[in-house]
Amino acid sequence: MPFEENFSVALRSAADQAPGPDVVALAKSGARREQKRRRRRAAVLAGAAVVAAAALAFSGVPVLRGDPVVAAQPWPAVSGEYMRDTLLALLPSGRTTTALGFTGSESNVKSAPSAVVGIETALGGGQITLTVDRLAVPLTDSAFGTRCQDPFERATESCSRTVRPDGAVLMVNVLSPEQQGMSKTMVVAYTRPDGRQVRLSTYNPDGRPEPPITAEQATAVVLSNAWDAAFEGVRVTNAPRPGVPTPDASSLLGTATGLLPAGAVAEPGDGPVTPGSTRLRITFEGRTSWLSVTVEPRWQQGAHDDPRGVFESGHGPELSHSADGTAVVAITERESKTTDGPIVQWGADALHPNGTRVTVTEWNGPDGRTFLPGTPALDLDRLNALASAPAWRT
């Protein structure tokens, strides 16, 4: 996963009580000092970015669902050292094992100002990562970092979503361990109405059950006004394109249901879904499976000169074309990375002539995180026909 995506994924967790005015003043003073020295540190922080990316690649922090993450303009006024020192100043006392901070402008990587800290506290040890970003406005209910993780896709211990009087959104999401012996993950994000967002996560890679800080401590970190200086110069660079709305989940559900083979029975899934997606449980010829459908209008148009070439590259016999020119890729995923494991996911990925991309995924299991072998309700031919149906074109 690219460095910037790791940081967008790793975002939230941290500290105890709100910092006093002395901490904020120290942070602002540090910002002015760091801005003067940023050029001399560019080469050093470029190396630090590589180290941090490697650490995050194994952090186990989950992907947050929501509208696409908005990449920040990588020309912030503060340095990586400022991000690192400010996060350390806001955390409770403890032994620091790792402390890195950097920005896209200093690492030649398009990323927002970020910091990652390894710390041992009275609660235990773990990793804490913080990122600041600007999201496109006006914010939607599904904006990245403002909605709870879907329990269907990730086991959740608790989640609270609070809309403050000024319209800002505070989300605190505690995710259960994905496997025995792993740690829970706490994700905290504070998003202001103008799109400024501070995201923080904490995770214990050693498998101890509790993160190194509490939810109250983490909330105090993201609410601190010490981060205000970090937003200077950070701008939204990939705001939603005008005229390309995200398809409504209910309309997608209706289209998917209408395209099922005769005799199939469909039940809509409960709970929130990723924007532009829908899911349903289908029963056909005595077999029951889950089906997820995601529709992206005008996929990659404007981002690449040849979206079709990007879509079709690297595929072999699993790539086919329908009579109207739709490119379809058949998908199978095995239980393990070995070639002899049982297949547990089936799907089809289609790029239509008008640029609409439709991805259909099918699996057996009680939820969106359990994949069991067995014959699915719809075979690959029916999945290909479903994904390439003209009814999806917008």
In short:
This protein is of the alpha+beta class and 394 residues long.
Structure in words:
This protein has a 7-stranded antiparallel β-sheet, with helices on both faces. The protein has a 7-stranded antiparallel β-sheet with strand order 8-9-10-14-13-12-11. By secondary structure, the chain is an alpha+beta fold. Helices cover 23% and strands 27% of the residues.
What attributes does this structure have?
394 residues; alpha+beta; seven-stranded antiparallel β-sheet; 14 strands; disordered N terminus
Record the SSE blueprint.
Blueprint: H1 3-9, H2 21-57, H3 80-90, E1 95-102, H4 104-107, E2 114-121, E3 124-134, E4 156-163, E5 169-175, E6 185-191, E7 196-203, H5 215-223, H6 249-258, E8 265-268, E9 277-284, E10 287-296, H7 307-312, E11 319-321, E12 327-334, E13 343-351, E14 357-363, H8 380-387
Antiparallel strand pairs: 1-2, 2-3, 3-7, 4-5, 5-6, 6-7, 8-9, 9-10, 10-14, 11-12, 12-13, 13-14
Helix pairs in contact: 1-2, 2-3
Tell me the major beta sheet. Answer: 7 strands, antiparallel
Structural class: alpha+beta
| Terminus-to-terminus distance | 31 Å
SS field, number of helical segments? 8
Please write the string of helix (H) and strand (E) elements: HHHEHEEEEEEHHEEEHEEEEH
Radius of gyration: 22 Å
Overall pLDDT: 79
Numbering strands along the chain, what is their spatial order in the largest sheet? 1-2-3-7-6-5-4
Could you state the oligomeric state of the chains shown? single chain
Q: Report low-confidence residues grouped into runs of 5 or more.
A: 1-65
Helix content: 10-25%
Give the tally of β-strands.
14
Specify the overall morphology: globular
- In what range is the share of β-strand residues? 25-35%
